[in-house]
Amino acid sequence: MSITRYPLHNIKKRHLLAGGLASLMLLMTGCAGNTGGSTVAEDCEPIAEVETMTEGKLTALVVEHPPFVTTEGGEISGVEGTLLKEIAAGLCLELDYQVTSFAGAIEGLQNNRADLSSSNWTVNDERRELFEVSNPMYQSTMGVVTKGEGWHTVEELKDKKIGTPQGYLWNEQLYDLFGDNVVEYQSDVAVIDDVKAGRIDVGIVNNHANSWRLTQPQYSELTLETMEPSEQLPHTQKEALAVVLVEKGNVALKDGVNTVLADYIESGQMQEQFEEYGLDPQWIADPTETED
């Protein structure tokens, strides 16, 4: 499959185009919703009374982004895929997950085509304005993939050709710092594959997701380091916390998500998921920590 790569300075225009195309695809196909006959017991008692886009269903926009979300085999799983199933079960709703792109998920949730989205989303002030934001799930850090060089500082990356996936909050900062040396890709996998092939020098990706991916034999020559904090790269100066994004105004659903999330962490389920995928449980959030 060919990979589209382009300079970050064109990203705003391309994001608008991608968002428009994603909207069209959502309208035409519904993003291939995945739900069968109802599995909700008639005597199910929900933990909270919530309103959703479709009565009896919880519609989620997700991005194929293992180990957080994967739909291989026709069933959603992964750290956040499992959480979504727990949320639906706790609310006595049928989970209808729809697979799309990062841009499509944001645009679709903004335009009332889903109730929520959970796909390794980190939070900033703009997203707090656009959506209801759950309590933190885990810390999401910036990882640096190289072909064995082990680079992890801003100084080491100067004059290097850098790839990063679409949709990350650090992208504009990378462009401001490294200019036209930065190109954007459609996925983490595409970035890593081009580092492996030598088409780029460095990949800037999610650390947790790709610590799991780089255990695969085909990536044995690559190394992954955590980006060293730098004032030149503000994203590294504070915790990047992953959250569930909920349709704006649906506070009851956000509260329901938070109730299930707290139990998911306290019960040890999230730790089990982290350990299954070789992730470090130390990054899991304190269940008493709130977004507000």
UniProtKB/TrEMBL annotation:
Keywords: Signal. Residues 1-32 form the signal peptide. The lineage of its organism: Bacteria, Bacillati, Actinomycetota, Actinomycetes, Micrococcales. It comes from the Bacteria. Residues 57-281 form the Solute-binding protein family 3/N-terminal domain. InterPro entries: Solute-binding_3/MltF_N. It comes from Gulosibacter faecalis. It holds the Pfam family SBP_bac_3. This is Substrate-binding periplasmic protein.
